[in-house]
Specification:
This protein has 234 residues and is an alpha/beta fold. The chain has one domain: Rossmann fold (3-Layer(aba) Sandwich). 39% of the residues lie in helices and 26% in strands. The longest helix has 16 residues.
């Protein structure tokens, strides 16, 4: 479904990604693990058109997308839940969700989409008219994911969904991600919590200083001594 071929991305003179190649199959959860500054967020930004690769290709369902503007990439069926949630703090929960469904012209379908989000995240329904900026960190993460789902993505990009959240909230978030995946949405997960990421994904890639250094099934990488030492605290 998604393929990166020798993607390199710079910020000015600084090289953030170098010859990054990997693929994500339809229906799977794939994960990118790595330390801070490894280039994980830049990888997602390069897919979404928020950072333009200066070399290589990004293909979605066989179509080259790395020269497209972000709004066209979103219209193809890719949604990004950014690190830090990036909810619209001065809008209500409902207004945030409705913005996620801005491409949906059918009001009945929009209502169905909202109900689907409420089933996944009942807490959001309780806070529909509350300003998003007053929500807890966990609630904001739920809102950010719910907003992305309103666009009916076929590929969901998640950037550090567990960051700064309590363990019980993290569990709820990842349970919802599992449901989203079972319903047919492919997921590319960037996650600093390598233990959690490898348990919840099928395939994994290790990114170090902008390069893919290891790849394989999540089970294989979880057993790799190098991964254990560097990322699993063993």
């Amino acid at each position: 479904m998604l393929e990166l071929k020798n993607v390199s991305t710079r910020y000015g003179a600084i090289s953030a990604l170098t010859d990054v190649s990997f693929s994500v199959a339809k229906g799977e959860i794939a994960t990118l693990i790595g330390s801070n500054g490894a280039g994980k967020s830049t990888t997602l930004r390069s897919i979404m058109g928020l950072a333009q690769p200066h070399a290589g290709e990004v293909l979605f369902e066989g179509k080259k997308i790395n020269r497209m503007p972000t709004h066209r990439i979103a219209a193809l069926g890719i949604a990004l839940v950014p690190e830090g949630r990036a909810v619209f703090a001065n809008l209500t929960v409902l207004e945030n969700l409705e913005l996620g469904g801005y491409l949906q012209k059918d009001s009945k379908q929009l209502k169905k989409d909202l109900e689907h989000v409420y089933v996944l995240f009942p807490r959001l329904k309780e806070r529909l008219l509350q300003m998003a900026g007053t929500l807890s960190g966990g609630e904001q993460q739920m809102l950010a994911i719910g907003r992305a789902l309103m666009a009916h993505p076929r590929l969901l990009l998640l950037d550090e969904p567990s960051l700064g959240l309590a363990p019980l909230v993290v569990q709820a978030i990842f349970d919802a991600i599992a449901v989203i995946n079972k319903e047919g949405t492919t997921v590319l997960l960037v996650e600093q919590n390598a233990n959690l990421a490898l348990r919840r994904s099928q395939n994994a890639y290790v990114l170090e200083t902008g390069r893919i250094t290891m790849r394989g099934t999540s089970t294989e990488l979880a057993r790799d001594p190098r991964v254990k030492e560097a990322y699993l605290g063993e």
